[in-house]
Amino acid sequence: MYPFYLGIDLHLKRTYLVLMNAEGEVIDKRRLKNTEMASYISKNIPKETYAVMEATRNWPFFYDLLEKHVERVELAHAKGVRMIAEAAVKTDQIDASVLAHLARLNFLPIAYAAPKEIRDLRQHLRYREWLIDERRRGKNRIHAVLAGYNQASPVTDLFGRSGREWLKEIAEKELRPTSRRVVLETLTLIDQLNAQIKELAKDIPLPEELKPKAELLMSMPGIGKLLSAVILAEIGDIIRFKSPKALCNWAGLTPRVHKSDTVVRHGRISKQGSRYLRSAMVCAAMTACRISPRWYRVYENLARRIGRRGAKVAVGRRLLTVVYFMLKRNQPYEEDYEQRRVAEQGA
To answer: Using one digit for the tens of pLDDT, what is the confidence trace for 119-133?
Structure first.
């Protein structure tokens, strides 16, 4: 129990705060501009306060601010706070009060608040992923322009050396001025994006305490320097997951389950959680299936039952399970781990 509880309903420009005591009596409530928050908290919020806010877009600034002034700060999981999401009457004051009451009664669904270093790493890697998406859009735009002139690339990689030579020749001879401009300027943009993506991959701000874990992950087939950083950035502290199933569920790699009486149906994966971690594990699975005999066998067995696309996702989930135990036990990857374990059990 804490003497005071502070519920905060965050918005982009203004925020509503409700401060109450351990008995639930409201001590103060007010709406403030976000620029006034620092002054108000330092002057009016006691040190012995448990503060809680929803994990909205601008939570990092207020979280760091509150950490300096109160004993405890937590993020509330937005989907978990059903009392707010399903309320018949919904106002900023009610939302802030509900958060404070949930914290006071120990019913708060807590979301993970990553440390500053992890947030910086995530932002770096997610920015790189955004640039890759922009590059993909640029390439698709060029393909769309060519399709309008019934032109198809004679080479596999349109954006390699041979493909670019052909593309520039077509642009000069076949395309009208506007289409030519779109193609050539988009090519310039793609070159700029390539340089930025390459630079970001070189300069990954991996915290020192995570470097041994990254080396650990890189012992697994399919995981290199970049994917190990993505996995560590998205997972954060592995201790927060009680089991590998919880981690896979958080990554959105577990199937949806529909159960009625004795009938159980398993659907597609939920895709709820970190799409960056999910994408990284599927990417790792595609490489592992090519270079590891163990994972090639797993992939082929699964592909016969659920198809090749589903098999890649299923292998990604199994790889994430292995990642969980590697980080939890601080052990490197072992290709023949299952055979060794069976042999030890037999002995």
So the answer is: 999 999 999 999 999
